[in-house]
């Protein structure tokens, strides 16, 4: 489902007034995910059917004689029809495959190598980021200790302000049913 269909579906679900409830958005998101899975499954089934037709065509061609001309033409027509069906189904599917994966396949390598490399890269970046975060936490702690020795009253006031603002942010997040990271909680429909 593309953006224009999605916005049209949202407008239709809202009665045309442009006001869409969260429940409608959640339902539309779930429906879009189900449609995407269904489209992908249809493409996969079409690919499997095409492979079966190619195998039948191979068997017909490998043992070709004058009597097998009609079955050969029927199988060719079936293959063309299924390829056309596959193209139509694939237009509904919006899956993007990285070029690196296709290059690995062309080189005769396992595409899982790409996944492994991406995961290892993410782990390395995560460790670097965690190291930076830990360094800043350590610096903050050290600065607060030094400031507390020099300006004890100001540091105490800072800690009180920080604690009250953290409590306010937590209370606000709970009142808006938001997660601490800013995401909105989604209530599953039963």
What would the keywords be for this entry?
190 residues; mainly alpha; 77% helix; disordered N terminus; Mediator of RNA polymerase II transcription subunit 10
Explain what the structure shows:
This protein has 190 residues and is mainly alpha-helical. It is built from six helices and no strands. The radius of gyration is 29 Å and the shape is elongated. Mean pLDDT is 81; it is low at 1-22.
Question: What is the element layout, followed by pairings?
Answer:
Layout: H1 3-13, H2 22-62, H3 69-92, H4 99-106, H5 112-150, H6 152-175
The averaged pLDDT comes out at 81
Helix share bin: over 70%
What profile does the largest beta sheet have? Answer: none
Instruction: Give the overall form.
Output: elongated
Which segments are poorly predicted (pLDDT under 50) over 5 or more consecutive residues?
A: 1-22
Q: How much beta, percentage-wise?
A: under 5%
What is the structural class?
mainly alpha
- One letter per element, helices H and strands E, the order comes to HHHHHH
Protein name: Mediator of RNA polymerase II transcription subunit 10
How is this structure best summarized?
By secondary structure, the chain is an all-alpha fold.
């Amino acid at each position: 489902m593309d953006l224009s269909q999605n916005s049209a579906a949202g407008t239709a679900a809202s009665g045309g007034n442009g006001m869409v409830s969260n429940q409608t958005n959640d339902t539309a998101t779930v429906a879009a995910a189900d449609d995407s899975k269904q489209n992908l499954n249809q493409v996969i089934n079409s690919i499997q059917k095409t492979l079966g037709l190619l195998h039948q065509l191979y068997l017909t061609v490998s043992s070709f004689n004058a009597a097998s001309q009609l079955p050969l033409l029927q199988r060719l027509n079936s293959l063309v029809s299924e390829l056309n069906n596959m193209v139509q189904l694939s237009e509904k599917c919006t899956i993007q495959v990285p070029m690196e994966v296709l290059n690995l396949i062309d080189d005769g390598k396992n595409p899982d190598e790409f996944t492994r490399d991406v995961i290892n890269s993410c782990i390395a970046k995560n460790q670097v980021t965690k190291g930076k975060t830990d360094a800043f936490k350590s610096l903050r702690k050290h600065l607060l200790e030094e400031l507390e020795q020099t300006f004890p009253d100001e540091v105490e006031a800072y800690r009180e302000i920080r604690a009250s603002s953290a409590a306010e942010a937590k209370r606000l997040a709970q009142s808006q049913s938001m997660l601490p990271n800013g995401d909105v909680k989604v209530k599953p429909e039963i």
